Amino acid sequence: MFTGIIEEIGTIAGIRRTGPMFEISIHAEKILKDVNLGDSISINGVCLTVTDFTTGRFSVDVMPETVKATNIRELKPGSKVNLERAMAAGGRFGGHFVSGHVDGIGTIVRKERLENAVYYEIQVSEDLASGMIMKGSVTVDGTSLTIFGVTENTFTISLIPHTMAETIIGQKEAGDQVNIECDMIGKYVGHYLRNTGVGGKKQDITKSFLEENGFV
């Protein structure tokens, strides 16, 4: 479990491909201070397991399904990645519940600066967009962010200067792909309503449903 508060930007040190599988080594510093074999590390929002480490780098294995479903496949030596250790039970909870299980890939279609903020409009499938609401939470490349606009197949986020500087999203431009994880609580509620329903009546999460029940 993660919070979506990025602790460090790491650098890909090497990638070894074995068929459809990857072994990735990553240069890092802060997150290695208390690392152990088997620890979970979020890499661009993907929960991966530490299989080896030294004082300045660590390694993870990436399964074929993860390669297909995320932007991990685009990484190469020198690529920058967002890193976060698994949430500590006694720590501050600065973001939102993030599982590290990416729901899909989005494509940045617009990047626009407005005063001290930078707005990103990201195109996703209608299925992903249907799980997002205004002022709700979303995880983009492992970063917990607030949604400021939603259409049938896009959503908009806004980055403050600190987030621009401390995550890799600030380096991305229109056309770049990002990993998307929808809000975990929203996914569970949506699954329950679609498969169990309220009062025995199954119900999709639609804009009209949210409006009728005071969520929008």
UniProtKB/TrEMBL annotation:
Residue ranges of every copy of the Lumazine-binding domain listed in the record: 1-96, 97-193
GO BP, one annotated term: riboflavin biosynthetic process
EC number: 2.5.1.9
InterPro entries membership: ATP_synth_asu-like_sf (IPR023366), Lumazine-bd (IPR001783), Lumazine-bd_dom (IPR026017), Riboflavin_synthase-like_b-brl (IPR017938)
Pathway of action: Cofactor biosynthesis; riboflavin biosynthesis; riboflavin from 2-hydroxy-3-oxobutyl phosphate and 5-amino-6-(D-ribitylamino)uracil: step 2/2
Catalytic activity: 2 6,7-dimethyl-8-(1-D-ribityl)lumazine + H(+) = 5-amino-6-(D-ribitylamino)uracil + riboflavin
Repeat region (Lumazine-binding), residues: 1-96, 97-193
Keywords: Repeat, Riboflavin biosynthesis, Transferase
Keyword Iron included in the entry's annotation: no
Molecular function in Gene Ontology: riboflavin synthase activity
Alphabetical list of CDD domains matching this protein: Riboflavin_synthase_like
Highest rank taxon of the organism: Bacteria
Subunit relationships: Homotrimer.
PANTHER family linked to this entry: RIBOFLAVIN SYNTHASE, RIBOFLAVIN SYNTHASE ALPHA CHAIN
Protein name in UniProt: Riboflavin synthase
